[in-house]
Amino acid sequence: MSHEEDVSSRIALPMPTMIRFLTGFFLCGLLWMTAFNSASMVLLPQRLKDDGFADPNGMIAQLNAAGAIVALCANIVFGSLSDRSRSRFGRRTPFMIGGAIASGTCLFLVAVAQQTITIIAAWCGLQLFLNALLSPTLATLSDRIPGNLRVRMSVAYGLGTTTGNALGTMLGAMFHDQKTVGFVAAACLLALDGLIVTSIWPKEPSAANLPKAGDGVAAILKSFKPPTRGASDFYKALVGRFCLMLAYNMVFAYQLYILESYLGQDAKQAAATIAVLSSCTMAASLTGMIVSGIIAERWGRRKPLLIIAAVLLACGFLTPRLVPSVPGFYIYGVLAGLGYGTYNASNQALSIDVLPNKDEAGKGLGILNLANTSGMILAAVITSSIYAVCGTYRPVFIGAALMALISIPCIATIRSAR
């Protein structure tokens, strides 16, 4: 662990300040995830179907693909730009407020746009500016939170996104027959996210007196360059995260199809199973996040918990292969939820530990977040390809378990974190 981390770990935040940061991180995750999930999971698919678009399923695939590509780039771009900011309002605050307002506006445009191309453009805008909110928010963990409190803040943010995941589906269902009203409600939640969070947090110090960042296009482009010196642990963390996200999404994103094809359930049975499975996964994830967060803070270690998370995920993926039944899937939901919650509690803290340059936390965390998006994209390609070649999802469970286990040596050999 670096000297800088040792020093920051000994800095204590006053209790009222710590509560303000915890509340802000929780609300940030809650608001954006509630808004995004209500639109992506319910309101948008229903709107495309009700408004008579020729191929709603195909259009959803186009939106997801285009949005993922934009998100891949936006995370690094806005992380880097916020690192370079010298605003008197701070490095992160202007991006958080502006990104939230712009992404909320784009979400509203998704609701009112009438042409396919304009809907795709608005959706890409949503993904672009959503990352202008999220990248600087997570970089705040490095800028303003002492090392010994980062797990606690990560848990608060994770609890917010997990709760928002469920509330978003509920909000979408509530406005199922009034989609425009639902879109407006979601857009307002998202647009206000940055303003609410930065109002709760202590005011960010001015960045006007920081050393000036280089001017010109060449300097800006150079700021996007990935780290090369002293970055071996950084890339180990990147590969480890990628393997875990790939493994998780290989099964999670295809649960409905797996239940119908692998277990032979009809659409109604699969929907009922998914409802129970989602409840099991969410409850286990919240439990894993809270328990492992407490352990990580008291123990002062991140790596062992991430290794445990990988083992839990691998066991969860293998369960439906060994026990091909509905109870087997429920066991998968519990184990995968525990693993994912444990992973979320310590992952962001470990990511900051391995940053080669803390002054470029926005860029570094943006690069690490590439693992999330690329893992989701590649998981869809791998799972669909396996099913197309083998005609069954059985090999998917083994492949996902292997990917989770491959992450273990990557995490275990990191030297700059415990």
Protein model, in words:
With 418 residues, this protein is mainly α. It folds into 2 domains: 221 residues, Up-down Bundle (Growth Hormone, Chain: A), CATH 1.20.1250.20; 181 residues, Up-down Bundle (Growth Hormone, Chain: A). The chain contains 15 helices and no strands. Helix 4 packs antiparallel against helix 5, helix 4 packs antiparallel against helix 7 and helix 9 runs parallel beside helix 12. The longest helix is centred in the first third of the chain and has 36 residues. The termini are close together. This is MFS transporter. Its main location: membrane. InterPro entries: MFS, MFS_dom, MFS_trans_sf, Sugar_transporter_CS.
Any chance you could write out the topology, listing elements then pairs?
Elements: H1 3-9, H2 15-50, H3 56-84, H4 93-112, H5 116-144, H6 150-174, H7 179-200, H8 217-223, H9 232-252, H10 255-262, H11 267-299, H12 303-322, H13 326-353, H14 361-390, H15 394-412
Helix pairs in contact: 2-6, 2-7, 3-5, 3-14, 4-5, 4-7, 5-14, 6-11, 6-13, 9-12, 9-13, 9-14, 9-15, 10-11, 11-13, 12-13, 12-15
Domain Major facilitator superfamily (MFS) profile: 233-418
Subcellular location: Cell membrane
GO molecular function: transmembrane transporter activity
CATH superfamily caption of the largest domain: MFS general substrate transporter like domains
Principal-axis shape: globular
Distinct helical segment count: 15
Number of domains: 2
CATH class of the largest domain: Mainly Alpha
Structural class: mainly alpha
Architecture of the largest domain, CATH level 2? Up-down Bundle
Q: Bin the helical content.
A: over 70%
Q: List SSEs in N-to-C order.
A: HHHHHHHHHHHHHHH
| N- to C-terminal distance | 7 Å
The CATH topology of the largest domain, please? Growth Hormone, Chain: A
Count every beta strand, where a strand is a DSSP E run of 2 or more residues: 0
Transmembrane segments: 21-39, 59-81, 93-113, 119-142, 154-175, 181-202, 238-258, 270-296, 305-323, 329-346, 367-389, 395-414
Membrane topology: Multi-pass membrane protein
Organism: Bifidobacterium callitrichidarum
Subcellular location: Cell membrane
